[in-house]
User: What shape does this take?
Amino acid sequence: MIRCRRKSKLRSKAGHDKPNCLMDLLLDTHAFVWWDGDNAKLSRSAFAAITEPTNRVFISVATIWEIAIKRRTGRLYFPASPLEAVAKNGFLMLAITGQHAEAAAELPLIHKDPFDRLLVAQAQLSELTLVTTNAVIRLYDVAIMSAK
Assistant: This one.
């Protein structure tokens, strides 16, 4: 399931109208790391959605936090500051609100990773399509696009 911000009609190269879904995307940590490093790992649909100029791409503060922790502990190689990578890619930052935190706590305990649970809550409340590699997240009521 993918959530559209709105639909618009674009002209195809042949001059025909074609429907287009304008999306607001939230990249999970894997998708963001892959995008910034080796985007050949991303699915074609995720790559196309991220590069579509009419779509908005968000990175959660939770993702910045997770990358920073994993870099510090040596569990992840990320060559630059995650904040610099967000800016370099023209992505938008998504703050964590009290509503996000409460919603994450209220989610069914399908998945125990607090970062992923927070991303699910943010995607639900902000009406974003979550671009993820995590199959367990599909069990939640959230718009998903596969990153792999």
